[in-house]
Amino acid sequence: ARPRTQLRHTRPTTMGERVSNEDIILDAAEHRLFLAAQALVGLAVLLQFNRFAILVGFGSLAVVAIYPFMKRIMDWPQFVLGLAFSWGALMGWAATFGQLGLPAYLLYAAAVLWTIGYDTIYAHQDREDDALVGVRSTARLFDKNTKPALVMLYSAMVALMAAAFAAAQVPLLAWIGLAAGAAHMARQIAVLDIDDGAQCLALFKSNSTVGWLIFAGLVAGSLSRLA
To answer: 50: exposed, middle or buried (C-beta count within 10 Å: 0-12, 13-18, 19+)?
Structure first.
């Protein structure tokens, strides 16, 4: 058996092994260094844009900073996550045009609702554990009403994105991509079982397909204008 003084300086792992406090501290330091390196790379990329885009980019820092705390104080942390995750819609427009226009705002709002929807699906994996430790989420808030909530979120997302497309006067092929993405989201809602964690994870991941469908439509539409 280990001496009691040694056991006080170890922690059990999920595999039943023990690691020292020194290892935990070292691991935390490595994570901080990795995070700092990522931040520096992000800053280097940001500084390549125009001045307005740089200011917009810095505006996201406050949202990113507060998100981790929202899970303890509100039932809609996914909303704050959406504000952070969707910032690229504003950044892309600002970097291209040096200002923000109506299509960018509409696209941003659409992306926020999309994020709330797919992260609600993801959060259902941990719904019961979150309840035990006091973590709040839209998954816990909606619970058995998740499907109707997703219908409203995804429908509003498609409507806002359609409005963004109309404001930007995108070609027909872009609309086809949006329609395909909307059909994919409708299928997610139809087959969703909030009590099946593996399926929730799979459906969450499948939202990358939604993004690719919309992106492919926009690219195809842009190419059609060049033909």
So the answer is: middle
